[in-house]
Specification:
The protein is α/β, with parallel strands linked by helices. It is built from seven helices and twelve strands. Its EC number is 2.7.1.33.
């Protein structure tokens, strides 16, 4: 079986593929290297190889690689920055500084449709990337996601603290909030939707032809109704990872 990892700054998203990589056997999200190893051991999986993308420091990534190799005796392949991959040309002036998760999401999106794309990743941070019909990455934007906005308000505003149950109930609608939890949660959601609408308008200006919209990340559902034609692809980074790190 094949282990795939998307190592972010806050969490590690993981999944295991069947030997012929035709189906996902299991997967999940963990908060640390130790939790990842413990979770995989509990699954009693026969792992043959691992491929991963990491936006962590080199030291942190290397520590995880050593742990995986020592525990499971598997070879690990890491995605690397590239100026061009699978018909997509990196748009950063310093290509190696484009976040690898963003890069692989862009590659994964363009690989599927071979046309202009707007790629929106709605996680702890929110990113947008534009790719034209010729595969040229035109750049993008980064801004705080809902978790960061919410946590900043909770940290710096004493009266803006409430539990997760109230947070969930607050998003049943987007009417003006009549409690702090409703005001914060709905306000953050509306800010996210406003950012997405701006990106759609910009894509319409940048692209001469029709374009596809890809949504990924944990908060994709918050804007799904805003873009009914969007493709919601939770594993978009993994699709790009398979392109960047093919297994023999």
């Amino acid at each position: 079986m094949i282990l795939e990892l998307d190592c972010g700054n806050s969490f590690i998203k993981w999944r295991v593929l069947s030997e012929d990589v035709s189906q996902v056997v299991c997967g999940g999200v963990v908060g640390s290297d130790q939790e990842l190893v413990a979770t995989l051991l509990a699954q009693r999986l026969e792992l043959r190889a691992c491929r991963l993308v990491s936006v962590r420091t080199d030291v942190e990534t290397e520590a995880l690689l050593r742990e995986l190799q020592a525990t499971f005796a598997i070879a690990c392949t890491c995605a690397q920055p590239a100026q061009e991959l699978a018909g997509v040309r990196n748009g950063y002036s310093e290509y190696e500084r484009l976040g690898l998760d963003r890069w692989l999401a862009v590659v994964g999106a363009f690989r599927q449709v071979r046309k202009a794309c707007l790629v929106l990743d709605l996680g702890t941070a929110v990113t947008s990337d534009f790719v034209d019909s010729a595969g040229a990455h035109l750049g993008g934007f980064i801004c705080p996601g809902v978790p960061l906005m919410r946590n900043q308000l909770r940290t710096h505003t004493r009266r803006a603290r409430y539990d997760e149950g109230l947070a969930v109930r607050a998003l049943r609608n987007l009417l003006p909030g009549r409690s702090t939890s409703e005001a914060v949660e709905r306000g953050c959601s509306l800010m996210l939707q406003g950012f997405v609408r701006t990106q759609l308008d910009m894509a319409s200006t940048l692209f001469d032809s029709e374009f596809e919209v890809f949504l990924t990340g944990g908060d994709a559902a918050l804007v799904a109704e805003t873009i009914p034609r969007a493709r919601i692809v939770p594993d978009l980074v993994f699709i790009g990872l398979a392109v960047a790190c093919p297994l023999k």
